[in-house]
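ok, trying the design again with the full structure, not the truncated one.
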């Protein structure tokens, strides 16, 4: 048995990846490529490692009673309403979003409102100026405080590359967010930065490296030179998915480790489970009651304080028509 210190998460992740990989993947299997062997468009920087994060995050709603409703009118306008109640604080939050797509011109209009009384408007145009280019203008306004904000986003993607640049407009000075991801033969490398013009310095400086096939993903990243993290996603079978994540922060020398799995019981039901090094155990059950109606039940148990209470339950209901 090999003992690997958790203070080296990238090394630990790579060793764990090689173990998982060697037990399930046959030589020559390359599911991330098409029949011609060409590389698909790499994900955006924010979506690197997303498959592993989804196993940890989706199917749970600890401490919340939540209702989501999605409908679509005959004219093509999409409505999305969400409401949730925090079982600890009793606070109720809600949001409403309307979206209309003008496919002929590649335009999407979105209006948003939430219970904090914040109004948002978003206009996006995609694949019109250039293939793979998406431009978005996003504004928010809070009538209670009079606060306004605006953001211009640009994203460009094609084979082997995915680029993004956002500009946040502020009275003190705009903030520029940039990212780039390149991919070749399953390997991915990305960089993300934020430049605050008011302070004239970089406030975010992140790097990431990963490897992706159809049933296996490895992702490692370094944030601001102080946080080192890694994740592994493995689709063991058509019904079973697993994920591992690991993070270490140099400032306080803290290590975070978690394992999660999702199992598809049948075409209508699935169960999820996860545990971390703080002995927090989460379980979730998702059932499609009928087409367009989905129920989610979840629970979070503190394994170190079983008898002390403080455990959380969650209930979610999704309706779509």
């Amino acid at each position: 048995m090999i003992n690997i210190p958790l203070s080296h998460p990238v090394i630990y992740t790579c060793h764990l990846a090689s173990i998982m990989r060697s037990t399930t993947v046959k030589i020559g299997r390359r599911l991330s490529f098409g029949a011609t062997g060409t590389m698909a468009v790499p994900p955006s920087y924010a979506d690197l490692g997303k498959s592993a994060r989804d196993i940890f995050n989706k199917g749970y709603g600890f401490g919340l009673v939540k209702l989501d409703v999605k409908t679509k009118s005959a004219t093509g306008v999409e409505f999305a309403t969400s409401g949730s109640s925090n079982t600890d604080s009793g606070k109720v939050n809600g949001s409403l979003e309307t979206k209309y797509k003008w496919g002929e011109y590649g335009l999407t209009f979105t209006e948003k409102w939430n219970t904090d009384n914040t109004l948002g408007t978003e206009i996006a145009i995609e694949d019109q100026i250039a293939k793979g280019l998406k431009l978005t203008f996003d504004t928010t306004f809070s009538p209670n405080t009079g606060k306004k904000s605006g953001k211009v986003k640009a994203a460009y993607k094609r084979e082997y590359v995915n680029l993004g640049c956002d500009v946040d407009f502020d009275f003190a000075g705009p903030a520029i967010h940039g990212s780039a991801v390149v991919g070749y033969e399953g390997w991915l490398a990305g960089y993300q930065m934020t430049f605050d013009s008011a302070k004239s310095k970089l406030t975010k400086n992140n790097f990431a490296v990963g490897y992706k096939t159809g049933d296996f993903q490895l992702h490692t990243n370094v944030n601001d030179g102080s946080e080192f993290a890694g994740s592994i996603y493995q689709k063991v079978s058509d019904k079973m998915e697993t994920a591992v994540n690991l993070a270490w922060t140099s400032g306080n020398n803290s290590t975070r480790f978690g394992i999660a799995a999702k199992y598809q019981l049948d075409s209508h039901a699935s169960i999820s489970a996860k545990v971390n090094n703080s002995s927090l155990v989460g379980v979730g059950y998702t059932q499609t009651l009928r087409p367009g109606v989905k129920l989610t039940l979840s629970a979070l148990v503190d394994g170190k304080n079983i008898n002390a209470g403080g455990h959380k339950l969650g209930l979610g209901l999704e309706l779509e028509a």
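Keeping the full-length input from now on. DSSP finds two helices and 19 strands in the chain.
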